Amino acid sequence: MVEIQNLTKYYGNKAALKGISFTIKENEVLGFLGPNGAGKSTTLNIMAGVIPATGGSVKIQGYDIAQQPVKAKRCIGFLPEIPPVYPDMKVREYLNFAAGLKGIPAAKRKGEVERVMERLKITDVQKRLIRNLSKGYKQRVGFAMAILGDPPVLILDEPTVGLDPTQLMEVRNLILDLRRNHAIILSSHILGEISAVCDRIVIINHGEIKADDTIERLEEADDSGLVVKLKVQGSSREVPKVARSVDGVVRVDNIQFVQTGVYTYDVELENDGVRNALLSALLQHGLEVLEISTEKRNLEQVFVKLVNQKTKHSSLEDLLQEMDDEAAQEPAAQPAEDKSAADAPAEDAAGTDGKKED
Amino acid sequence: MFSLYKKELQSYFLSPIAYFVIAFFMATFSLTFIQEIGNVSSSTYTFSFSSIFYVNIFYFIFLLPLLTMRTFSEERKNGTETMLLSSPLNVTQIVMAKFLATATILLIMLAASLFYPIITSIYGRVIWSSLICTYIGFFLFGLVCIALGIFISSLTEMPLLAILLSELAMLMLILMDNLSVNSFLSGIPVLSDVLSWFSNQTKFYVFSQGLMQFSDLLGYVTEIAVFLIWTIISIEKRRWSRR
After folding, report:
1. Where's the ABC-2 type transporter transmembrane domain (chain B) (predicted)?
2. Which of B70, B83, B91, B241 to mutate to test the interface with A (most CBs of A within 10 A)?
3. Within this chain, do residues A202 and A137 fall inside the same structural domain, yes or no?
4. Residue A198's CATH number
5. N or C: at which end does chain B have fewer Cβ atoms within 10 angstroms?
6. pLDDT one-digit tens code per residue, A18-50
7. d(CA B122, CA B173)
8. Which of A220, A246, A277 is the last residue of a domain?
9. What DSSP character marks residue B182?
10. pTM
């Protein structure tokens, strides 16, 4: 449906996009993630033909946006960051105009306008001046404009900004509904939003693609290390030692003081089964476990890590792997004792364990 | 393109601007008409419409920028430019739609001013051929101003700045030949010749005398085309540099 190849954009000498490529298939919602100023809007504007690219190509249903702009633009519904509405027009008037602009034949315009108003639930404000509408309504009017004429490709630049929670849910459902016969690209910097509706995400920063993968695979990679948070009464020196002695404990870090004699620890386990072994080991040593909770690696942390990466990566797994390596080295520096144990966990820990039991 | 034209025309009447401009034009036209009529005291003086138009050309400078100021600067301010640029229209069509819509307002103004010749023809004799010629000259000059105003509007995001710049530029257009005959420039014949070619006042003067020269017609049409092409270039240029 949409093919983007080696897209570059320069403003003077400053590179906004440094050769990005990805594709959007039919019936797919692609989440386009990145911090502010990463090049999200630039990319979407280029895709919609608002601004030309310096190099590379965008093909919409086989039509190149630079070579055959009219044919390509007919396949696009574009909702820019700021909803492009005329404050002096009434909602219905505006949608009628937009329908004409998009080349919808006059006979079909009325029905089409009614359809999109119904879809976005703005029928009740159709006779009001857009100037007097709230931000959420303006956003929905803009959205209605984008889906006028039912274009097969929808480009939505932050479609849920300014919506209240109910409207948010409605728009989410609408996107999921539209997915059935559209290719949708949707930009956002809100991760919850992306994970709620997108099948695949592309993360971009400094004009480069940092990751391009499905949500499922991201989550899979996410589950690879199970981290449990423990709150234990006992020495902050003894607990990590005991924990590391258990088979299947990958690392112990992030030791935080709660109150005298009570600390919390993040313990990464190979799998779920290790948890019981860990608990019994702790209890055997007379350490009282006050609290245990499972902590997943937050999608937001992944995002932050990814955007801060300097180098280019082909897949998410590589990145997650690298993050793990980094994480293993960094926090270990905090408690001095941790470091040696983290570097050579198994044998060392087994040795101490043996002594203790004697 | 027609729907954009329709919307543009509609938006002039959604705000008070079109009404104001038309009313103001009628007011100045009426005032000059009354003044000219008042001058007809002796039987040797024949009253002609061309002098009315001649005066009104100067009022135009202050009126037309009001119409053209918002054409592009407001689109930019509202963020609606992205909608136009992502629509299946190309930049030329967008510019033409806006130009034609403003030209339509000008036509309405001229149609309203027909009131006076009609009144005059009831009580006297109007040389229609000469009048039509004057109208054509007036209309073409108006189109030049509109094209120039649209071009200036495409350069800035601030409507007020667009007004001031357009007024200045239109004044230059009209006073070009006054410049060319001043003592300093007339010393350089080549420069004064070139300037007088571009003079709109002389072109209009010829029209108002009931003469239609092909060179003047071509001159006006060229000016309109140049300004419109500049507008297209300016928008294309900004497409490249915008974020």
Report:
1. 43-234
2. B83
3. yes
4. 3.40.50.300
5. C
6. 888 988 888 888 888 888 778 888 899 899 888
7. 36
8. A220
9. S
10. 0.76
